[in-house]
């Protein structure tokens, strides 16, 4: 009996020593009380090494939980992460409203320039309505190119495009086997799709992160996608490599409807990277995509569309004008001009009241451009910071056809030979 | 010299007592640690700023611990909260007022909103000279 008591005492002591050792191994809790919530959270105990996600979302102000979810007081990783919203991607569209929404954040009004979520979730990049319509038209599923289906059912009663609703696309309705194959294989390229794979960069390929969390890859292709490390970053300085992670990832074989991922390892952007059948002007392979394509072109304007061609409207003449008309400009007189907001998010230029910038036909500010005192123009790369001086067409020897101003027409003379 | 031989019974008794004492001490240590745990102190809402004479007439003094800007004008002392009314970032003093580094809101020298997205001016905080003769600033 006495021996049993001694053994029990030894076991008790060992247990207590074990607990004490375990406690000593734990990091000292780091408390944070974000200004926005005023509630303590201990996430930084383990995550203090993470860089600030952006200067618009400082951790001291936002904390972690308001955007990621999680159990703020937990010190155990499993418990702390048990209520994360969106896992590795809190900007996934399945949780974006909860994590990034709110009138003061990203689901406010157009007038306050904070309608990012309503715009992007009705955009062609999310609905995929254009691709679905064109495929159904091509294979006899419908008689015209007007979008009937999207990746989810959606209404737009105030439509300015003529599309007031989209039905959720279910490939099972199709009788044509090609459309069934399209449904099986080709519905992953939209922002609310489940990631086509998990792990590595794939975890950030949906929702806002697909564009705003760029990963710097060691070369120009996306072959390292699976092994790329996720980054804690949100930015509007999006390099073309991020756009091309989806838009130049490979090709669908139209005979088999199977995606053929590119496996090459491109070194130069023009020679190796882009499709050999395409033509490009110098702008198209020296600038980043976002240097020309505006926020409504890329993220929509809140209306539903049948094709990306209905929302893409930037042309060469937007910046270069025509033989008879200079590009449209605006002198900044309103401190609340959208141009200042956008420049503040990505300060590659120091915009001031009184500066004259180029604007699009819809009045969107091309805030990274400037009319110079000598009448020439300047564009600063939003992702590269590079300065590109350029001139208007007016007064040049350009032989343009005034009725054909799209890039395809300009390619007649200005495409770069490869 | 008499060598006292420890009986098996005494050895077990000593071992038991020793082990239980150590366990008890460890448990007591854990209890003391638990009871003496300091939870997060509440965010202060009152700040003692010192003597009014420390802040010359016509000066603007940054109070990073609040954070606020204490302004001493002919009308007396006033203070502007440097917490942006938009989402709570700390605004930064500029020659012509204040700017928010997070979302670009701008405020004039008296805290009035010049540019959004903040929908309103910087909050004016209460400052008074208390019975102790010192300036007190209140954030609530």
In brief:
With 418 residues, chain A is of the alpha+beta class. Chain A has helices spanning 2-25, 44-47, 59-62, 65-68, 77-80, 96-100, 116-120, 124-127, 129-138, 177-185, 209-212, 240-247, 269-273, 282-286, 289-292, 295-299, 316-320, 338-345, 407-414; strands at 149-150, 154-155, 165-168, 250-253, 258-261, 329-331, 356-359, 365-366, 369-371, 377-380, 387-390.
Describe the structure.
Chain A has helices at residues 2-25, 44-47, 59-62, 65-68, 77-80, 96-100, 116-120, 124-127, 129-138, 177-185, 209-212, 240-247, 269-273, 282-286, 289-292, 295-299, 316-320, 338-345, 407-414, and strands at residues 149-150, 154-155, 165-168, 250-253, 258-261, 329-331, 356-359, 365-366, 369-371, 377-380, 387-390. With 418 residues, chain A is of the alpha+beta class. Chain A has a three-stranded mixed beta sheet with strand order 1-3-2. In chain A, strands 6-7-8 form a three-stranded antiparallel beta sheet, with no helix packed on it. The longest helix of chain A is centred in the N-terminal third of the chain and has 24 residues, at 2-25. The N and C termini of chain A lie far apart (92 Å). Chain B contains one helix and ten strands. With 140 residues, chain B is of the alpha+beta class. The radius of gyration of chain B is 30 Å and the shape is elongated. Chain B folds into two domains: 8-37; 46-138, Rieske [2Fe-2S] iron-sulphur domain (Rieske Iron-sulfur Protein, 3-layer Sandwich). Chain B has one helix spanning 8-35; strands spanning 46-50, 60-63, 68-73, 76-81, 92-94, 97-99, 106-107, 113-115, 124-129, 135-138. The longest helix of chain B is centred in the N-terminal third of the chain and has 28 residues, at 8-35. The interface between A and B is medium-sized, with 37 and 29 residues.
């Amino acid at each position: 009996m006495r021996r049993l008591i001694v053994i029990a005492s030894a076991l008790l002591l060992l247990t207590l020593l074990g607990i004490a050792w375990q406690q000593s191994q734990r990091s000292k809790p780091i408390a944070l009380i974000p200004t926005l919530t005023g509630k303590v959270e201990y996430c930084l105990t383990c995550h203090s090494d993470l860089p600030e996600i952006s200067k618009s979302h400082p951790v001291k102000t936002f904390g972690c939980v308001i955007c990621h979810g999680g159990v703020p007081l937990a010190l155990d990783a499993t418990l702390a992460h048990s209520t994360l919203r969106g896992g590795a991607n809190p900007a996934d569209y399945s949780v974006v409203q909860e994590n990034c929404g709110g009138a003061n954040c990203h689901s406010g009004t157009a007038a306050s320039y904070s309608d990012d979520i309503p715009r992007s979730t009705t955009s062609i990049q999310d609905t995929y309505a254009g691709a679905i319509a064109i495929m159904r038209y091509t294979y006899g599923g419908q008689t015209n190119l007007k979008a009937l289906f999207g990746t989810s059912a959606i209404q737009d009663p105030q439509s300015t495009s003529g599309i007031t609703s989209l039905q959720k696309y279910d490939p099972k309705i199709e009788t044509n086997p090609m459309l069934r194959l399209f449904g099986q294989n080709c519905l992953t390229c939209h922002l609310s799709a489940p990631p086509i794979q998990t792990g590595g960069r794939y975890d950030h390929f949906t929702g806002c992160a697909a564009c705003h969390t760029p990963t710097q890859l060691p070369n120009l292709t996306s072959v390292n996608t699976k092994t790329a490390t996720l980054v804690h970053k949100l930015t509007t300085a999006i390099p073309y490599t991020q756009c091309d992670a989806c838009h130049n990832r490979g090709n669908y074989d139209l005979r088999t409807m199977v995606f053929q991922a590119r496996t090459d390892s491109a070194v130069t952007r023009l020679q190796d990277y882009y499709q050999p059948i395409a033509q490009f002007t110098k702008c198209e392979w020296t600038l980043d995509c976002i240097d020309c394509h505006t926020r409504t072109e890329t993220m929509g304007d809140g209306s539903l569309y049948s094709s990306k061609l209905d929302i893409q409207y930037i042309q060469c003449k937007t910046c270069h004008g025509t033989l008879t008309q200079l590009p449209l400009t605006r002198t900044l007189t309103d401190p609340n001009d959208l141009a200042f907001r956008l420049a503040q998010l990505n300060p590659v230029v120091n915009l001031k009241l009184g500066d004259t910038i180029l604007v699009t036909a819809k009045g969107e500010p091309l805030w990274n451009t400037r009319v110079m005192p000598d009448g020439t123009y300047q564009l600063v790369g939003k992702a590269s910071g590079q300065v590109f001086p350029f001139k208007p067409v007016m007064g040049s020897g350009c032989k343009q056809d005034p009725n054909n101003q799209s890039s395809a027409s300009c390619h007649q003379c200005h495409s770069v030979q490869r | 010299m008499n060598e006292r031989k420890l009986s098996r019974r005494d050895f077990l008794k000593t071992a038991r007592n020793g082990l239980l004492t150590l366990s008890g001490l460890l448990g007591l240590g854990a209890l003391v640690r638990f009871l003496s745990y300091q939870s997060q102190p509440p965010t202060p809402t009152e700040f003692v700023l010192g003597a009014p004479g420390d802040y010359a007439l016509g000066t603007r003094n940054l109070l990073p611990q609040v954070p606020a800007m204490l302004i001493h004008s002919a009308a007396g002392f006033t203070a502007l909260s440097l917490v942006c009314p938009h989402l709570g970032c700390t605004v930064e003093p500029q020659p012509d007022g204040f700017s928010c580094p997070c979302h670009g809101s701008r405020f004039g020298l008296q805290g009035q909103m010049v540019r959004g997205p903040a929908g309103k001016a910087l909050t004016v905080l209460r400052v008074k000279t208390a019975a102790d003769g010192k300036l007190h600033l209140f954030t609530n």
